[in-house]
Amino acid sequence: MIAHTNLIGCRKEELDTPVLLVDLPTMERNIHRMASTIIHEAGVNWRPHTKGMKSPALAHKLLDAGAIGVTCAKLGEAEVMAAGGVKDILIANQVVGPQKITRLVNLRQHADVMVAVDCEEHVEAIDRAAREKGVRIRLVIEINTGMDRAGVDPGEPALALARKIQGREGVELAGLFTWESIALRIENPEEKKRMIDDALTSVTDTAQKCRNEGIPIDVISCGGTGTYWISAFQPGVTEIQAGGGIFCDVIYRHQYGVEHPYALTVLSTVTSRPAPTRIICDAGRKTMSVGAADPAPKGISDVESVGMSAEHGTVKLTKPSETPRVGDKIEFVIGYSDVTVALHDEIYGIRDGIVETVWPILGRGRLQ
Questions:
Q1: 69, 175: one domain
Q2: In whole angstroms, what is the distance from residue 261 CA to residue 255 CA?
Q3: Are the C-beta atoms of 12 and 18 separated by less than 8 Å?
Q4: Mutual orientation of helices 24-35 and 56-64 as an angle, nearest 10°?
């Protein structure tokens, strides 16, 4: 994959479409805001999630801002980050099966990787492979604090799993992690804080139960973009995983209460104006995520709805308008950045309307 560096210096309106853009000054302000809150105000570590960036170049920008490492959703993403020079990586997911576990222990030769577990089968399989390879893998126990996805319950169930990790040669227990998503969509600030406090207290109490038995717990990792400004200040938390806030998007702003400006957009071309209240463009579902939150066109008033088919976007207006015309460009704020970034090969960094850099999205398609 070769980035189109020959386009550096051109105006963004000159780019062929559809194309994924990031406004660099806005992203830089978002990075500074998150780093300031997490590192400098709360005094905890920042390990931003890269599942919505998928680019080592972007990860290094966050490391330069003070992050200690990154969080990845998949082993394949972690391999991309390690190949890009990122050395401290948490895989916030269970790695299962002989093929993946062989890759995991080999990755340990190139990066200090931690991985999530929530049952003894995970522990035994990783321990065995690590001993055969002659490495040691750090484990974090995933705690279910209400999301009801993966994870062991806090308290005694987590303590029981911690006991099973102790004394093994191929693995060591680094700590605990959770995702307190149960509080994401709560609008009332006091209620949101209460839900987060309750969820994270169950994790920190579990950590103390482990320590009371002589089981060290160094890492307590949590906090997404929709909770980080609260979770970072919870006593006992050591690191925050929020990463998507460097871009922000419609779902973060309108459903999760994230007060960051939008940095990530898609530039599209108007391809048809079949009616004065209907605009057709060349960015559809293969370009932008829909469902969780629809993209929002910038600079167009009286929008009734935005619809997507495979290759087309349709903007319906409440009032007739002659503009934009066929051939004009429309820029869309992203509905959900995590899924949209994964649809593209490159992201174009824009400053003052000019292409300053082009980053290949090297983690795209790394689902295994």
A1: yes
A2: 15
A3: no
A4: 50
Q: How many Å apart are CA 367 and CA 118, to the nearest integer?
A: 21
pLDDT band of residue 291 (cuts 50, 70, 90) is confident
Angle at 180 between CA 156 and CA 58, to 5 degrees: 125
Catalogue the E-assigned strands of the chain. Answer: 19-23, 45-46, 70-72, 88-94, 112-117, 137-142, 171-177, 219-222, 239-240, 264-275, 278-281, 296-297, 303-308, 313-317, 329-333, 346-351, 354-360
Binning pLDDT at 50, 70 and 90, where does residue 3 land? low
Pair of tokens at residue 284: 């559809």
Is 5 a residue whose pLDDT tops 90? no
Q: What is the pLDDT of residue 2?
A: 56
Is 264 found in the same domain as 239?
no
**CATH number for the domain that contains residue 270:** 2.40.37.20
Number of C-beta neighbours around residue 338 at 10 A: 21
Domain that holds residue 66: 24-247
Q: Which two tokens stand for residue 229?
A: 């400004």
| H/E stretch holding 201 | helix 189-212
Reported as a single tens digit per residue, the pLDDT across 189-235 is: 999 999 999 999 999 999 999 999 999 999 999 999 999 999 999 99
